[in-house]
Amino acid sequence: MKNFKRIFAIVLAAVMLMSLASCSLMPETETDITNDNIKIGVLLSGAKDSTTGMSGATMTALNELMSVGYGINDEKFRYAENADPNNADAAAEAIQSLLNFECNLVIASDAEFLDDIQKKAAEEENAAVKFLVYGAENDGKNIYGYNANITGADYLAGIVAGMKAAELNVPQLGYLVKDAADLTNLNAFAMGAKSVYADVKVAAVAGTDAASGVAALIKDGAVVIASDYEDEAIATACTDSKIFFCGFGSETYKDAETFLCAPVYNFTQFYINAIKAIVDDKEPAAFEGGYVTGETYLSDINENNVAKGTQEAVNKAAEAIADGSLGLTVTVDTPAENVTIAK
Length: 343
Fold this sequence. Notes:
Largest sheet: 6 strands, parallel
Helix content: 25-40%
Mean pLDDT: 88
Shape: elongated
Number of strands: 14
């Protein structure tokens, strides 16, 4: 299932960029944007070579886009790396560095940049610049939000974890949730686990102190640990303690000794569509993708670690999500019946 979606995305990307490349053959004025003169700024809270977090998801998608070719290569991009979204002066300076490069489009990896982008986007000299901001909403002017619902992939990760717990005959899973006010991904994971192991329980720790969170969950008896954010400390602690874990957001830790799987973001198609719209002098469309449309997916499972029959169970559920026969109703702020939040 996952491999099919990824291959389909690459093929579609190639078709879209071939169309984009043809735009430069049309008559143009000095101010027209084409794939020859488009300049794309990338605002990152991490580094350009990041493979984790939203910076990692952003760069993975952009690198995939560039690998397709057709004139959209690294020369079209300018990067502002390691910008601190919690430091207004630093964020403003990073954004301005991209505007000084005369970028037509600025892509921001984190929703926390929105306040600073709104100030720059409102300046008259930046009215023609399009800003794509993860987690934001369109402002009707030049800010365009994008997001991806990862609950379908989280549900499938829960199946993988639940089947492993059943194999070990220990109905205890652990989960690190970034914000106790948003339990969406945790609940989807817990629902998936319960669908294959009726007795399974999920203990969750809120906050971003990954090392202490993992330690608490292991002490509590969790045999598989998952999360709704990515942190090397999770992979390290689980590997060192021989505890199985599911990643989140990317496939960065797929070679770790105790890795099971990971729900993953893929924004490649959205970036392609947005760039093509700008080149065609159109407004980027409002966007929130998900599992069915391929913007999120479950990584390949680690066949050396998962329980027998896991791939078959994942395939069956994935087909049901894709054809609509399995609808996921996930609450945001109320824990699922098999979830306990540590106080």
